[in-house]
Amino acid sequence: MLVPDExxxxxxxxxNLNKPASYETAQLKIRHYSSPDKEKFNGRFSVQSYSxxxxxxxxxxxxxxxxxxLSAKNINGSPVSVQTYLNFNYRADEWNIISRKPAENFKVxxxxxxxxxxxxxxxxxGRHLNAKITxxxxxxxxxxxxxxxxxxxxxxxxxxxxxxxxxxxxxxFQAGFYLNRTDLFENKMMxxxxxxxxxxxxxxxxxxxxxxxxxxxxxxxxxxxxxAEADLYKKINNQSKNELSLTGLFVSGRYSPFNYASVNLxxxxxxxxxxxxxFKNYIDDLIENEMRxxxxxxxxxxxxxxxSVGINAGYRFRKGDPATSNDIxxxxxxxxxxxxxxxxxxxxxxxxxxxxxxxxxGVMIYRSxxxxxxxxxxxxxxxxxxxxxxxxxxxxxxxxxxSASIMKLLSVGIGWEGIFExxxxxxxxxxxxxxxx
Length: 437
Known about the structure:
The protein is mostly beta strands. The protein folds into three domains: about 1-30 and about 115-260, no CATH class; about 35-115, no CATH class; about 290-435, Porin (Beta Barrel). It is built from three helices and 22 strands. The protein has a 22-stranded antiparallel beta barrel. A hairpin with a 4-residue loop joins strand 21 and strand 22. The longest helix has 6 residues, at about 5-10.
């Protein structure tokens, strides 16, 4: 499957496990359409240009990206809603080739028609990422959910997007169900979801899995998020068997005993997912699939109203790697210096891994101009690192950004970054124009 741009990931395939689902789910009450809701419409259209240049050969190019997102809720006061997220991008120097088959660069990440039976019950048709089972990824087909008491139960059937083009591919048929329960304890909440999914390729089992997701804020100032994923199917040497194998586990918590201090800690363990039919020509290379594990934590303190200090560290390892990977970093940020009205920050990161190690120093200055909600920022980063344990390299990076909003309907941003090494100079220019509909 092609990897969408960062904006798409945030807006559509939001699988950032550090940001669990909103607790607003716990506050919902069943509401039938005896009185239709007011129609709501919002959208955004953006044009972006990335220009890359370098003193190396054949490394200069310009990329254009057009993005459209629309959401029409309760159309004409009805329980019918439509939402979509579309993207078209290409390199300017390849336009002669792309113009012959533009559909190959046109991506549909969300395109669905939804009928709301109540606040927690709906019927949906099209391509959509279900917020309760985000790890399953996007679903092309039919989804139905019904809410009763503390439970929400859902089923779906259809296919998953083509792993090479993000297009529609009915041969990748999938189906499954999920059960969600939300419990309230005064002003506290606990939410649990369990799901079962069967994914196929040409209607032969490709992957069979169960998924569990948990969030709660029962302990004061300590929200917790847990997700676990396990495969139930293996096919080795044409022999199929049902066997439970943990594919992924993520646990995250953030403790804020005071409004000026917080501590966060997370544990992540994951194996590469194997689709036994899709990857059957590479199974021998995938069988030795050791689990990568990582631990990450951080402390953030605000000793004064405008001053923030933090330190964070991470540790990752996998059996068979030449060495473990770890990093440690710290930052110092001041919200607004008197007279100058600028927000400076300093940062330091030390990384060490199997193939690279080094130090990264950074400084950034941010300032709001007070005109048309605009801001400017400048940053400098210096990297001193070793790779392959023998070669040493130095890199300096400069960047500048300016952004402005016009009447909250139009925003314009221009950014530049220059990278300077001993034998190489490179950079990129970004222009972004976004209109809110």
